[in-house]
Amino acid sequence: MKPLVFCLLLTVTCSRSFAQETPERHSRVDVIDYQYQLQLSDRDDTLRGAAVIEAIVLRGDSLLLDLHGPDAQGKGMLVTEVTIGETPVPFRQHAEWIAIPVSNNGRHIMELQYKGIPADGLIIARNKYNRRCFFADNWPNRAHQWIPCNDHPSDKATVAFRVTAPEHYQVISNGVQTEEYRDGSGMAVTAWRETTPIPTKVMVIGCAEFAVGYAGAVGQIPVTSWVFAPDRDNGFHDYGQAVDVLPWFIQHVGPYPFSKLANVQSKTIFGGMENAGCIFYFENSVTGNRKIETLLAHEIAHQWFGNSASEKHWSHLWLSEGFATYMTNLYMESTYGADTLQKMLQEQRKTVIAFYHKEPLRPVVDSLETNYMKLLNANSYPKGGWVLHMLRRQLGDSLFWRGIREYYAGYAGKNADTDDFRAVMEKSSGRPLGDFFNQWLRVPGHPQLKLQWTQRKNELRVRVIQQQQALRRFPLTLRITGGGKALTETFQIEQRDQSVVIPLPFKAEALEVDPFTDLLAEWITERVK
Q1: I want to staple 322 with a disulfide (CB 3.0 to 4.6 A). Which of 166, 199, 318, 405 is the partner?
Q2: Structural domain span for residue 477
Q3: H or E element in which residue 434 lies
Q4: What is the rounded distance in angstroms from the CA atom of residue 411 to the CA atom of residue 416?
Q5: What's the total number of domains in the chain?
Q6: CA–CA distance, 458 with 477 (Å, rounded to integer)
Q7: What does the DSSP 8-state code read for residue 381?
Q8: Which of 269, 294, 319 is the last residue of a domain?
């Protein structure tokens, strides 16, 4: 996912990073399958739903599901009945969840009837052409605003949506379409089924007056475009570029994890939302100028990283957003050259540094933040991407890509955290990476350097002073130029105040730090006499 703004454009630390992550009630249930029957209307915003949920109760005497109940504003979902088989069973509905007593642990199948006006999660609005539409927008834990579920990324399940809506709408969802018909009363029924387990954050429906276009196929994967009818030509042109993007990720990461790729113009509050096999983009993404290649690449990258290999908890969001950011960088490097990668990294570095100066205490892995929207920040996106870039430079391309592919293969369809990824990269490369991961992901900030340099005869002396609080260890590349000549050297910086000596057979005129854009740092240089 990209926040819209991105599209338009140690002790304390460790205690923050290792706080308790998964709420206890989310770990008490393992949902196997969701089946939702939903009724949408043009008369009002009331959603009428039935949910058949198959789940394993791991402990306790109740099946606990998230669902936002009726609130003071008259919005929320009211459960009217719960049945097991055909037998009604008692339940308790709280403000944000429901409890259904069970006689024993193990597998249970139950059906819930509910209705209400969603407070969030399902956006019921008018698009820019003043046409009514319905779009799910679940991230991070907003799915339970409109469907009963275990609203946590660690619990994946298969899902089916069967939507009854006025027949002038088309409905898109995850998976493959299994049914579509008109019932003769002005309503149409559309059914979709996703057989690959996915987290609730990417289980969606979209209902609007779409123009639907077939962009092509990548192997056996159909790629389609779903755009507002007046945007038909421009939207098909813009979103059709996905056919060119998708093969790169298949080649470099692994098989595409879903049955289709639908790119959908929507009312998402984000720039793009990577719903599994069914990506939603903000409605003004369609221009006809194909200016959204990086947005397409970012959301397509999420199909592997975030949707298939998913983070265990939102605090490890960089495994989704940092990966999507850097995989987009790598796609652009492969397509347009190394200069493009450098320019993107330089801009992203500026963003990371600016964010640090506003919020200097935040590590990338931030387990204390409970307002998950605040994790949509420069740490999760460009800093996470920069960590992968520095890891690539440390390991070399061959070992880096081997590790990435092995990580994805090992966690496809599963959940991982930062230590899981580190363990794979260590095993794949044969190198210890604990210090690297700790200093870049668990400790806030980055190197803040002061470099003082002077030349004495045929030697250049450079004093490197680390001014940030936590000592860092990193390679530092310097380029010295003068008289039409240049010399580039790389040093391992490990001390708070470290001097290096460079034999130099010409008179130095300038010192350039990090000429290849390989270090996340900020610095000032000073020539001394």
Answers
A1: 318
A2: 448-527
A3: helix 434-437
A4: 7
A5: 3
A6: 19
A7: I
A8: 294
Q: Which residue has the higher pLDDT, 456 or 276?
A: 276
Q: What are phi and psi of 118, to 5 degrees?
A: -60, 130
Residue 227 to residue 16: CA distance in whole angstroms: 43
- For residue 127 the two structure tokens come to 């698009």
Give the contacts of 402 (CB within 8 A, at least 6 positions apart): 428, 429
Q: What are phi and psi of 460, to 5 degrees?
A: -110, 125
The answer to whether residues 432 and 453 belong to one domain is no
DSSP readout, 445-513? S--EEEEEEEEETTEEEEEEEE-SSS---EEEEEEEEETTEEEEEEEEE-SSEEEEEEE-SS---EEEE
Predicted TM-score (pTM) of this structure: 0.95
Answer yes or no: is 269 within a domain.
yes
* Eight-class DSSP state of 156: -
Task: Summarize pLDDT for 291-348 with one digit per residue, the tens.
Answer: 999 999 999 999 999 999 999 999 999 999 999 999 999 999 999 999 999 999 999 9
The confidence score (pLDDT) of residue 86 equals 87
Give 277's DSSP letter. T
Neighbours of 470 (CB within 10 A): 14
Point out the domain boundary residue: 294, 323, 350: 294
Q: What is the pLDDT of residue 204?
A: 98
Kindly state the average pLDDT of the residues 42-70.
95
Identify the residue whose tokens are 């898109």: 172
Query: What element of type H or E holds 187?
Result: strand 187-198
Q: What distance in Å separates the CA atoms of residue 375 and residue 460, rounded to the nearest whole number?
A: 44
Residues 162 and 245 in one domain: yes
C-beta contacts of 13-18 below 8 A and 24+ residues apart: 13/361, 13/363, 13/442, 13/443, 13/444, 13/470, 14/442, 16/361, 16/363, 16/366, 16/367, 16/368, 17/315, 17/363, 17/365, 17/366, 17/367, 17/442, 18/367
Does 138 share its domain with 62? yes
Could you give the CA distance from residue 158 to residue 33 in angstroms, rounded to a whole number? 5
Mean pLDDT, rounded, of the chain: 95
Q: Are 305 and 319 in contact (CB under 8 A)?
A: yes
Tokens at 420, concatenated: 């899981």
Q: How far apart are CA 34 and CA 264, in angstroms?
A: 23
Mean pLDDT of 455-481: 96
Q: Cβ(335)–Cβ(341) under 8 Å?
A: no
For residues 380 and 348, what is the distance between their CA atoms, to the nearest angstrom?
Answer: 12
Cβ partners under 8 Å of residue 9, min gap 6 = none
pLDDT of 498 reads 98
3-class DSSP string for 74-107: CCEEEEEEEEECCEECCCEECCCEEEEECCCCEE
SS percent in the chain: helix, strand, coil, step 5 = 30, 35, 35
Half-sphere exposure of 41 (CA within 13 A, CB side): 12
Please list the alpha-helical segments (H only) found in 240-383: 242-252, 293-301, 318-336, 338-358
DSSP line for 344-372: HHHHHHHHHHHHHHH-TT--SS-TT---G
